[in-house]
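Entry for the shared binder. Reason: the reviewer on the internal report wants the predicted structure included alongside the sequence.
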Amino acid sequence: MWSGPRTVSTAMMRAWENRPDAVVADEPLYAFYLSSTGLDHPARDEVIASQPVSWRAVLSSLASAPLPDGVTISYAKHMTHHVLPSVDLSAFAPFRHAFLIRDPRSLLASYARVRSAPTLSDLGLRQQARLFAEFGGPVIDSSDLLAAPETALRALCAALGVPFSASMLSWPAGPRSSDGVWAPHWYDSVWRSTGFAPARPGPPPALDPAFEPLLAACLPYYEKLRENKIKIDIPNE
């Protein structure tokens, strides 16, 4: 699944990992991204040491590695900004694709709590729109997922051609062995979670006025993806 920044996308990864017939991969292109860009992210050296830094090696392994007994689904949580221009998109052709989107105002407010000066490339919406144009696939809006988790997950599973499992709706709190080594810096709220928490009522979070130009740059990509989202019946709407 292609996602922007992490909180809801990591909860989605938890949902798939909690299925008895699935295994997950947590941001398998992160080491490649950091090694290629030289960016200073939390736990940078540990991330690079924990994964292959070749995108070819990563995608080849995802496409060909045998699955454990009883497992029929391999789910990868990708951050779209990890797909740098040097990556040949045709290498993603063997996979089925799904897209998790989030309102850019909320996305920016969340991301800025960890990195103070995000850029359009950091946020991944431009890359997400490019990947959608290349491959298509179901689009889920995170606000719909949080408002009606079962309905949204049933619709996503149907679109991907896999059976829905009620085990996707809740999971044990705490870290998992599948979490990337960066998890202590990003996954605090997910580690405390046992399911999809309803979105907080009220207006979107306040945004530093300095981010308004970046928000304006994000909106066309978000709106294009949002036009193609799975329509979910939300209670009380």
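Summary line for the report: The longest strand covers residues 73-79.
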